[in-house]
Amino acid sequence: MIEQDATPNPPSNTGNHPLQTAIRIVFFLVVISAAAWAVANNWEAVKEGFGRLSIWALLGSLALAAVGALSGIPPWWRILAGLGSKLPLRKASRIFLIGQLGKYIPGGIWTLLAQAELARSEKVGRARSAAASLIAILISVVSALVLGSVCLLISGREVLGSYYWVLFGLLPLVALMHPAVLEFCLKLVSKLTKRPIAEKRLSGADLAFSLAISSFGQISSGLHLWLLAGTVGGVFPSPLLAIGVFALASGAGILIVIAPAGVGVREAVVLAGLGPIIGVGPALLVALLSRVLTTAVDLLLASIVYPQGRRSRSMSLRK
Questions:
Q1: Distance between CA 162 and CA 269 in Å, rounded?
Q2: How far is 133 from 113, CA to CA, in rounded Å?
């Protein structure tokens, strides 16, 4: 059964408090200033690394990053279906890829709001689509942090040093994937939106599928970092190390909601993880190139699926 929005829209509560806006602006300026200082301070190494780049390495990294971005679609689609709203994969892809551009707006809620509004055009209630998005984000964070911890515990001792034991604290996060925890998330979304959501636990198959695809996406994204690091640094790090670094960087970037799309946070983790292996200058360039490529992928994929909605509306009007 497809959930309908039976209650009127709640008053808008998305306005930013002046202090929150100021904090985000200051954070953004600090990140930009720090990046500029780091590039200037390591300019010779950055320039040398840039000279090692090839078009094939960039295209390969772009392709791997695209696989990572596309891997977010199936979990969201499967979760939404598990909650009772089945959509064609093509329509779900459009909603997900366009809506997830909201992550580039500081605040942490814009992806949920954008996907909920887009899903509403397909007669999916806002509360249900928001719940699916929230659970998909939770799965993405848990899979990233747990996968990153496992990979670095295996191959990252030279980076972690004597602090490797800290990562063991992230492994219990997998308990968040228990159906009871996700049911709590559904109730929380229902309370926040003041709209009913079907009290239905996701099946074990739904969760296993979503975790597997999310982990696959993290591996592909980590390999894009590995290819960039090996090309720019002249020495290829362990693939497990690159996967672990990027997975932890992605998870941390999602959790720090004042950073749009994890800007600054992700780069700091990548720099800390790859710096001891390929050098600070090359690692800095890799972090910046990764940001450019992943942003380009997000914009490209959204631009590809965007016309589908316009064609669908045009056909509906003709009928």
A1: 17
A2: 9
The H or E element spanning position 248 is helix 239-255
Do the beta carbons of residue 249 and residue 156 sit within 8 Å?
no
A 10 A CB-CB count for 258 gives 16
For residue 276, give every residue at least 6 positions away whose Cβ sits within 8 Å of its Cβ, in sequence order, or none. Answer: 158, 159
Using left for φ > 0, alpha for ψ between -120 and 50, and beta otherwise, residue 256 falls in beta
In Å, what is the CA distance from 143 to each residue of 66, 93, 125?
A: 18, 21, 27
- Burial state string for 21-58 with b = 16 or more CB within 10 A and e = fewer than 16: eeebeebbeebeeebeebbeebeebbebbeeeeeeebb
Residue 64 near residue 224, CB atoms below 8 Å: yes
Burial of 309: CB neighbours in 10 Å, binned 0-12, 13-18, 19+: middle
DSSP one-letter code for 84: T
Across the chain, what does the average pLDDT equal?
79
Give just the sign of the alpha carbon dihedral 160, 164, 169, 170. positive
CA separation for the pair 157, 164 (Å, rounded): 7
pLDDT at 78: 92
pTM greater than 0.90 (yes/no)? no
Nearest to 61 by CA among 243, 221, 199, 187: 221
CA proximity to 221, closest of 231, 213, 210:
213
- 246-250, 259-263, 267-271: segment of lowest average pLDDT: 259-263
Question: What's the rounded mean pLDDT across residues 283-307?
Answer: 90
